[in-house]
Specification:
The protein is an alpha/beta fold and 327 residues long. The chain has 16 helices and 9 strands. The strands form 2 sheets. A 7-stranded parallel beta sheet has the order 1-4-5-6-7-8-9. Strands 2-3 form a two-stranded antiparallel ribbon.
């Protein structure tokens, strides 16, 4: 088990660091990144670390000018709206352009020893949506309009992002990451037919390129209940499920040949341990004997979460995992 956003604002130590440094300072300073990534693993006793970074990090060397604004997210000064904008984007060589990420990976692996590190990147649709919209969006109007009315521009942008995501994740694995997760957070905004036509081919290409690395490849999105079968067809080894789809239903739909990850509602953890115990035991019971299952929340840890409740949740899952059949 591990938690998405297990390093973050629910931690007093993290909040103290944010008094001194902004988000990108933490993400681009290897020593700070190592500490922020490792601290929740050491405090909570989870079974894996997730690299502390942001999906926007590899876009900076492409020429995307962005800031991470508190309570908003990435805000981009120069949105992509034309083929000219796409052609102006640069390529990314992680060893040259993102050495601080690879230095952090080396440091995390050295500090954690046998505990694996999960590297990550954003999915091309989610990255494209930020680049096109200029920031977070509720309806993705500019993004969808580009897909439908300028397919050549869309294809050029997605092809460029496939290269960036693939090389970024490959470099993380070569630096020591033992698994990777692709966060395609906003694909749930798409109808299945749009995902199949405009996103699936690019995701399949990323997973094809990552296959020779021989590490687990996790694919996660939010609100993807209508897309699970299509996401599996892209070729990941693990599918992350948010809290809207019961895991037993997801398993029934997609079959036994892929691992599942998820999917306790992250809001429930903010309600205290008593609100967590029963649903967690029920979730674990539904997956007992499953061929391959990783416990996680259905999305990231929320800032108002009590770290003690997270620790109690880790202990509960580990205790349950030792009872009877392995989870």
């Amino acid at each position: 088990m591990w938690f998405m956003r297990q390093a973050g604002r629910y931690q007093p130590t993290y909040r103290a660091l944010r008094q001194q440094y902004n988000f990108m300072d933490l993400a681009t300073d290897p020593s700070l990144c190592v500490d922020v990534t490792c601290r929740p693993v050491e405090d909570l006793g989870v079974d894996a670390a997730i690299l502390f970074s942001d999906i926007m990090v590899p876009l900076a060397p492409m020429g995307v000018n962005f800031t991470i604004q508190e309570s908003i997210g990435p805000v981009i000064a120069n949105p992509i709206r034309s083929m000219r904008d796409v052609l102006a984007l640069g390529s990314v060589t992680p060893e040259r352009d993102l050495p601080y990420v690879l230095d952090a990976v080396h440091g995390i692996v050295e500090r954690l020893g046998p505990i694996p590190l999960i590297g990550f990147a954003g999915g091309p649709f989610t990255l494209a949506s930020y680049m096109i919209e200029g920031g977070p969006s509720k309806n993705y109007l500019y993004t969808k309009r580009m897909m439908w009315t300028a397919p050549d521009v869309w294809a050029a942008l997605m092809t460029a992002l496939v290269d960036v995501v693939s090389t970024h994740l490959t470099a993380q694995v070569k630096a020591g990451a033992g698994a990777v997760q692709i966060f395609d957070s906003w694909i749930g905004s798409l109808a299945p037919e749009d995902y199949e036509q405009w996103v699936l081919p690019y995701m399949a290409e990323i997973f094809r390129r990552l296959a020779p690395l021989a590490v687990p490849r996790i694919y996660f999105g939010v609100g993807t209940g209508s897309l699970l079968e299509l996401m599996v067809s892209a070729g990941p080894d693990v599918l992350g499920i948010d809290w809207r789809v019961p895991l037993i239903d997801a398993r029934r739909r997609i079959g036994p040949h892929i691992a599942l990850q998820g999917n306790l509602d992250p809001a429930r953890v903010t309600a205290g341990y008593d609100a967590v115990v029963g649903p967690t035991q029920a979730l674990l019971g539904s997956m007992r004997g499953d061929p391959s299952y990783i416990f996680n929340l259905g999305h990231g840890v929320l800032p108002m979460t009590d770290a003690l409740v997270l620790k109690q949740l880790v202990d509960l899952v580990h205790r349950e995992g030792k009872r009877g059949d392995a989870l």
